[in-house]
């Protein structure tokens, strides 16, 4: 049992970590994360998209929205 607990990463922090970007310096714009993944870190695309999917599911659970098979959102 440690004295200090690590704070959970914010959504942007999770995206940065999935993209392989350093998170210690603070968060950057989501657009910058995307540009970095697309331009230089193509091997990180799968991991980054997995985090995006998780974040969308969490947002849907929090707001009561879900995606249907036709990719449109409907209230639960």
Can you characterise this structure?
A hairpin with a 5-residue loop joins strand 1 and strand 2. This protein has helices at 11-18, 30-39, 45-63; strands at residues 65-67, 73-75. The protein has a two-stranded antiparallel ribbon with strand order 1-2. With 76 residues, the protein is mainly α. The chain is flat. The mean pLDDT is 78. Helix 1 (11-18) runs antiparallel to helix 3. The longest helix is centred in the last third of the chain and has 19 residues, at 45-63. The chain is built from 3 helices and 2 strands; from the N terminus they run αααββ.
Short characterization:
This protein is mostly helical. The chain has helices at residues 11-18, 30-39, 45-63, and strands at 65-67, 73-75.
Element string (H = helix, E = strand): HHHEE
Strand content: 5-15%
**Strand line-up of the largest beta sheet:** 1-2
Structural class: mainly alpha
Low-confidence stretches: none
Number of DSSP strands? 2
Helical fraction = 40-55%
Sheet with most strands: 2 strands, antiparallel
Helical segment tally? 3
Instruction: Average the pLDDT over all residues and give the rounded result.
Output: 78
Compile the SSE list and pairings:
Layout: H1 11-18, H2 30-39, H3 45-63, E1 65-67, E2 73-75
Antiparallel strand pairs: 1-2
């Amino acid at each position: 049992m440690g004295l200090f607990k690590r704070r959970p990463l914010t959504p942007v922090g999770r995206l940065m970590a999935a993209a392989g970007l350093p998170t210690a310096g603070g968060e950057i714009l989501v657009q910058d994360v995307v540009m970095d993944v697309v331009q230089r870190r193509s091997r990180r695309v799968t991991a980054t998209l997995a985090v995006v999917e998780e974040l969308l599911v969490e947002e849907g659970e929090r707001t009561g929205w879900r995606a249907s098979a036709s990719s449109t959102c409907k209230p639960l």
